[in-house]
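REQUEST FORM: STRUCTURE PREDICTION
Request ID: SP-0412
Submitted by: Lab K.M.
Chain count: 1
Length (residues): 325
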Amino acid sequence: MKNKFVKLIIAATLVCLCAFPVSSGAAASEIYLGGIPAGFSLYTRGVTVVGITDVPTEHGKFSPGKDAGLQVGDVVLSIGGKDVNSSEDIAAAVEGKSEAKVVYTRGNERMETIIKPKKDALGKYRLGLFIRNYVSGIGTLTYVRNGRFTSLGHPILDENGNLIEIVGGDLINCTVTGVIKGERGRAGELKGIFLKSAPFAKADCNTKTGVTGTISEDAIESLHLRKTQFGTAKVGAATVYTTVQGSEPKEYDISIVKIDKNEKENKNLVLKITDEELIDITGGIVQGMSGSPILQDGKLVGCVTHVFINDPERGFGIMIDNIIE
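STATUS: Completed
RESULT:
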């Protein structure tokens, strides 16, 4: 396709290994349909450098991070032999040290350097780094099976397009409060708020086909998820089950106009929104709809993953077979 496209959640490099428990019995194989909006709050492995600055000391200003060769986008994994996943971890790792070995990744390359912390006016050892250790945003739950949820349909990536490894996180109840409509040349976006309640699921893996994790039977019941079955996508009429107002999902008419079974990741299906109500509300596919289930004959056949930036009524989806694999 010549159309430009964008993934449907704002991303805040390594693929994580996940264990998927298998249960026995009829109830364990039941599939529950998603479609509900979710607030994602995910903690990354390591800390990402998002800025480099000077450390003011009594002897002048120094930039330990810059002098060590670190760059924006690097992911710091350990300092002085200690894993770091937060600013508190960094402070503990450098306290009292005149230098320390830093292990980090740049793109897909693992690298090492020596950094020399500087003591600021308050006596704290600083590296002159602004860091981020989490990503957050709004997306859509796709389905639940065997006590695990699947969402988004595509990975969360960093600014350089690398898959972010996560060490945990939460899915939080969310309500959609508004929409920035999609226009030709600019992707639209769902606006929402995280509700002040306990998380309904725990994320543990960011994969090439979405964020996955665990969810309890009580949470499934409280979310009023309906049972469904897996199906096989075919060209023709379909619906997308998504939430673009409030917190209750609704089915909207779409068409699957093309299927590419050779596409091994998250752009197997070419979609067109045909529902006038959805077009009137959103302009088509917008950010935040990522993971919205696609149904044919009442069965789950895939989910939405991307929007064409030059035609918001069209986009990509992923077949359910690719998510399961």
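NOTES: The chain has two domains: 5-44+133-324, 54-127.
Reviewed by: T.R.
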